[in-house]
Amino acid sequence: MHLYLYGPPGSGKSTIGQILARRLDLPFIDLDAFIECTAKQRIPDIFACEGEGGFRMREAAALDQVAHGPSAIIALGGGALLSAKNRALAESTGDILCFQADAATLESRVSRHPGKRPLLAVPGSECAVPPSPGQAKPIGLLLAERASHYASFACRLPVSDLPPEVTADQAQAALGRFRISGMGTAYSVRVGVGVLDTVGARMSELGCGNRTVIVGDAHTLPLYGERVVASLRASGMTVSTVAIPAGEATKTIETVAALWSAFLNAGIERGHAVVALGGGVVGDLTGFAAATWLRGVRWIGLPTTLLAMVDSGLGGKTGADLPQGKNLIGAFHPPSLVLADTSTLPTLPAAELRCGLAEVIKHAVIDDPGLLDELPRFAFCAQSADGAPCQSLADADWLAPFVARAMAVKSRVIQQDPFEKGARAALNLGHTIGHGIEKATDFAVRHGEAVAIGTVLEARLAEALGLAQPGLAQQLAAHFARVGLPVTMPAGIDLTAVRAAMTLDKKKAGGEILFAMPASIGDVRTGVAVSNALLDRVLRA
Ligand code: NAD
Question: 116, 117, 251, 435: which one is catalytic?
Answer without folding.
Answer: 435
